[in-house]
Amino acid sequence: MKKTNAARILDKNKINYNLGEYEVDIDDLSAPNVAKKIGMPLEKVFKTLVVRGDKNGVLMACIPGGAELNLKNLASISGNKKVEMVHLKEVQGLTGYIRGGVSPLGSKKSYPVYIDSSVESWDQIAISAGMRGFQILINPKDLIQVTNASIYNIVREE
After folding, report:
1. Element (H or E) spanning 54, and its range?
2. Which residue from 59, 100, 111, 151 lies 20 to 30 Å from 75 (Cα-Cα)?
């Protein structure tokens, strides 16, 4: 298994994690597909979204795989009037990551990270290891600490 930048950051910080590998389906990079392949419930597989605020620029939002980001909540808590998803064409240039492999760890530049508060319900979650086909299984407290993340309710309510 390859070591990714995200895994190296965890190693450097002496944080326990497991690296899970799965077969990539280029036609289905969705969180539900990843959850099924790694054998974890969808609500424990967190996807990382790249967002841009009108005042404070780029930030990352980690939310459960089946959830939808609440842009209004995120704008409010991040000190922006408005936030919007970064266009897919820009993601790699900003983070160094491609769609299906965006991690809150080890991007080209350090961006503020916001994680949905549901993360506090779990002992272990999965996040992208920074490469398609690899997931990091980690205790959320460790992820919060190493990313210096802010925890808020940032998903849309059903």
Report:
1. none
2. 100
Please give the Cα distance from 63 to 50 (Å, whole number). Answer: 11
Residue 93 CA to chain centroid, in angstroms? 17
- Would you write out the chain's pLDDT as a tens digit for each of its 158 residues? 578 999 999 999 999 999 999 999 999 999 999 999 999 999 999 999 999 999 999 999 999 999 999 999 999 999 999 999 999 999 999 999 999 999 999 999 999 999 999 999 999 999 999 999 999 999 999 999 999 999 999 999 86
Domain map (residue ranges) of the chain = 5-152
Amino acid 100 reads G
CATH of domain 5-152: 3.90.960.10
| Residue 117 CA, distance from chain mean position | 13
